[in-house]
Amino acid sequence: MPGAIVEQARAKINLALHVLGRRADGYHELDSAVAFADVGDVLHLEPAQATSLTIHGPFAAGLSADAGNLVLKAAAALVQCAPVGPVRIVLEKNLPVASGIGGGSADAAAALRGLMRLNDIRLAPDQLVKLALSLGADVPVCLQQGFCRMTGIGETITPMDGLPARFIVLANPLAACSTQAVFAALGLRAGERFAEPLDPQQPASWRNDLQEPAVRALPVIADVLAALTQERGLSDIRMSGSGATCFGLAASRPVADAAAARLSAQNPQWWVRAASLS
Length: 278
Known about the structure:
This protein is of the alpha+beta class. It contains eight helices and ten strands. The protein is about 30% helix and about 30% strand.
């Protein structure tokens, strides 16, 4: 058993998020192109006498380290599937909370990966997906951290080739955006169809169907989108997930770095990062 390990919980970016409709059971059926940025939270795990969670970092405030945290929920869920020894987990929280870029889901997935490494656990792929899905719709995709297509309610993941760009600028106004409120604002009834699936070969046609209801719920998102649109060298300006993080794609890292620097200077109250995608 390793003495201590580190797991990266990289930011999940919905390059496209098409809402196909709402199923009869109330769940929304999605079709999303997902990539991962090289910014995110970090989990440190090591064997201990008792399982514990400590949270620090720029966005630790307001997060609870009790049994309701998704990291500890992931640990508890894995215990039901395989022998897991007690562990001390330290979560470095670098991503804004409720920001549409994975956050807690990425942390839960990192906890599962780390605990499986630490305890030399191997689960069948379908068992692991079922376990991850029990923690949240975005947890299965966050387990793999690679460019893919996510369909259903998040349980069907297919690797994709041909990222539309390798670099990105992320901007969040540091205003939390409720996923539940945004889906409610979309206003779909159970059984109602809404949109067509995305075309993997036509990134120019990709969109985020949650962007408009999110802007209605949190108008500052429109300001972030406008600021990104005004930046030289950025394209495919959209919101990720249910918001409020927005992004623009860049052809090179220097272009992304320069745009992020200007956005930060003009909007010092925002969280802005340049990143690479995979």
